[in-house]
């Protein structure tokens, strides 16, 4: 794939040094969120007196601005071959037990911090034509672990250590009062009016004028096949589920020509959205092209589209500039923003931050966690079959996703699935309603709690 390396156009790096304490604090805060009742004060670096010590093997990496650390070693843990960064003593066991104490011989704190903070994309200059950090430039691609939530494996080592020194089991957190795994189903509403366009263009090109004329007539007199908000909601509800609709307020193309919505939000459409909200579906903001790096426009889209500012956002085309977008979202927290839902790779399903739980993105400028949550995205419909992405057959989709979904279940995480409303068109036989139904049936059978984004935020940090 083409990777545009355009350092001169990127925002400048503006980062505070990240010292060992800041890494430890950031990582342990997430460890405490991932399990029930984690006892505090047990884990520290090797020069401290804690009963669980972690080797310090980062050797100045976080004082420099290199995007990539040395290649990982591989360790067997919980039935998987797990890549371990900052592992300076591969000959030693990962976990060494002594009476009442234990030692972790790889720097799992630094390794977890590196992946969870998104260090690679902050310091890398690689961006694709949509300004996104490309999968091709990631350590997940280079070392082949995009479908493994590696940080959760690091946390599982910490869990084993805590259980050993306390003699008490440490259980993964549960969702909605008891479910072992959560599912966050969402729909970016890009198109409501354009289902006829692609086949009509094909008719014109092949000079099938009668068919073109019939299609045009149908378009002018009947609802569009993509004007299907109620069908989408009814499909989701048939699994006892609710989902989140990301609404795109801008219908004019972005400055770079990339299309935004093919609809305008008029009163009748807004009434339909409100009707979905009254049934328990969530309405959230789909930030238009350019808003990931334009705070004034982002802020007005957030405050002007909704009667009450949306608590969730995902940028159109999953746009996200690591050096700028998180700070813009931080500035919207006072205005009611609670979570973002864009951080997945468009090119491949899996874990962009190698973590299957929601997390607080790292604020590189201030050297501390942001105050909004990221609910990371693992599956987007278009990723699965697209000229630029994967080319899975329809019957290969669920089998391809199942091992990754099983990893999420193993650690009690959140499976985030983006299925655009236009992919509910029955004419879509590759990544369409049938493939969505297979994924939903699988999640339901596994006992997933289907939660909207704001329900996930409330479950994790209170309403
Ligand atoms: Zn979109």
UniProtKB/TrEMBL annotation:
GO BP, one annotated term: carbohydrate metabolic process
Superkingdom assignment: Bacteria
Protein name: DUF7033 domain-containing protein
Family annotation (InterPro entries): DUF7033 (IPR054297), Glyco_hydro/deAcase_b/a-brl (IPR011330)
Coiled coil: none
Domain DUF7033: residue ranges: 105-191
């Amino acid at each position: 794939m083409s990777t545009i390396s355009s350092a001169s156009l990127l925002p400048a790096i503006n980062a505070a040094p990240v010292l060992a304490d800041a890494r430890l604090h950031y990582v342990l805060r997430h460890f405490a969120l991932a399990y029930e009742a984690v006892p505090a004060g047990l884990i520290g670096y090797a020069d401290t007196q804690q009963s669980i010590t972690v080797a310090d093997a980062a050797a100045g990496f976080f004082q420099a601005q290199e995007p990539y650390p040395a290649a990982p070693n591989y360790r067997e843990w919980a039935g998987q071959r797990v890549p371990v960064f900052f592992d300076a003593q591969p000959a030693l066991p990962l976990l060494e037990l002594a009476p009442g104490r234990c030692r972790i011989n790889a720097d799992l704190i630094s390794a977890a911090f590196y992946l969870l903070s998104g260090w690679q994309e902050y310091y890398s200059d690689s961006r694709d034509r949509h300004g996104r950090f490309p999968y091709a430039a990631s350590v997940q691609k280079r070392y082949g672990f995009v479908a493994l939530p590696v940080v959760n494996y690091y946390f599982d080592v910490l869990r084993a250590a805590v259980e050993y020194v306390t003699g008490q089991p440490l259980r993964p957190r549960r969702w909605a009062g008891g479910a072992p795994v959560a599912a966050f189903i969402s729909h970016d509403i890009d198109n409501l009016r354009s289902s006829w366009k692609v086949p009509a263009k094909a008719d014109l090109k092949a000079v099938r004028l009668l068919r073109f004329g019939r299609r045009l007539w149908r378009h002018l007199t009947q609802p569009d096949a993509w004007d299907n908000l109620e069908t989408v909601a009814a499909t989701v509800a048939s699994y006892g589920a609710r989902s989140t609709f990301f609404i795109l307020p801008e219908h004019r193309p972005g400055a770079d020509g990339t299309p935004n919505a093919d609809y305008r939000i008029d009163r009748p459409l807004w009434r339909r959205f409100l009707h979905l909200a009254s049934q328990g579906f969530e309405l959230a903001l789909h930030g238009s092209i350019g808003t990931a790096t334009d705070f004034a426009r982002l802020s007005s889209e957030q405050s002007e589209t909704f009667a009450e500012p949306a608590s969730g956002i995902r940028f159109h085309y999953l746009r996200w500039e690591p050096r700028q977008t998180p700070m813009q979202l931080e500035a919207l927290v006072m205005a009611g923003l609670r979570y973002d839902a864009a951080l997945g790779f468009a090119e491949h399903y899996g874990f962009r931050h190698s973590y299957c739980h929601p997390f607080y993105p790292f604020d590189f400028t201030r050297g501390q966690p942001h105050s909004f949550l990221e609910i990371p995205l693992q599956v987007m419909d278009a990723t699965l079959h697209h000229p630029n992405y994967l080319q899975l057959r329809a019957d290969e989709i669920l089998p391809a996703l199942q091992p990754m979904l099983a990893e999420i279940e193993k650690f009690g995480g959140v499976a985030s699935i983006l299925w655009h409303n236009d992919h509910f068109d029955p004419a879509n036989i590759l990544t369409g309603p049938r493939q969505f139904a297979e994924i939903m049936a699988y999640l339901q059978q596994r006992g997933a709690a289907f939660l909207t984004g704001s329900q996930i935020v409330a479950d994790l940090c209170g309403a």
